[in-house]
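Appendix B. One record, verbatim.
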Amino acid sequence: MTINPNSRSLTVDHVAHFLPDLDAASSALTRLGFTLTPLSAQSHRLHEGGPLQPAGTANRCVMLKNGYLEYLTPTHDTPNARQLRDAIARYTGVHLIAFGTQAPAADFERLEREGFSPLPPIALQRQADTPNGEATARFTVVRVPPNVMAEGRIQYCQHHTPEVVWQSRWTSHANGAVGLAGVLLCVENPAQAAQRYARFTGLTALSKGDFWLLNTAHGYLLFGSPAALQCWLGVHAPAMPWIAGYVIDSRDMTATRKTTDGHSLGEQLCVTLPETLGGVMLFQKSGMALPDAL
């Protein structure tokens, strides 16, 4: 199991699709060569010491050796579930980016200082099967109010039980996927969006030709305009702004090509996901720093 390589720095921990039909999405992911965790209902405490309440959502995950992919669906009528349904009404696909952190209190203070009006940290948990029986996966999550970050739910996540989340039996995939390398964001003004995320994270935004880049200790965010993403990946934004997809490291690109129906972009393979998932996956050989487009 590989967790954050630098526990004192931010990483790209995971991304999440918001989905109306998790069963159909799960079937599509299995056909793409992914191993999925079992369905798990989520619960949360909205403030420290408060009662444990159903979040109204459930998930399955694709666990990678570095980072993971989450697939979330609303299950009940709760504020959290209504946020998912509102997002799905815009488009089916990625609506959440979580930065991995070991210092959520410091992240909260930075968000307050930078004017993002963060919500009180949330204690989130879900049950998970382990070889030794059921266990509770626990997280501290720092969020900002809806619409403060126009691209979606952009948050911080601290893992308290990584051994429950990253189980080795879930990290082997027929398509060779081993890591979440980056996230692709389609925005009207890449420079402005990247600078806003720089304030959000305390990191530095860099100009890269038609794109802007934000590097973390592991993983990056890449900001491009609709024209730039269309020219590069051949995709059309279903709404703006749009978290278009993500970049996945593969240990074996031959296996990736055998299990996914993608088209080559230099040394990468671009997979346009079915409507049940939404967006794109860009596979690349593990260890590649940035996509060929940069």
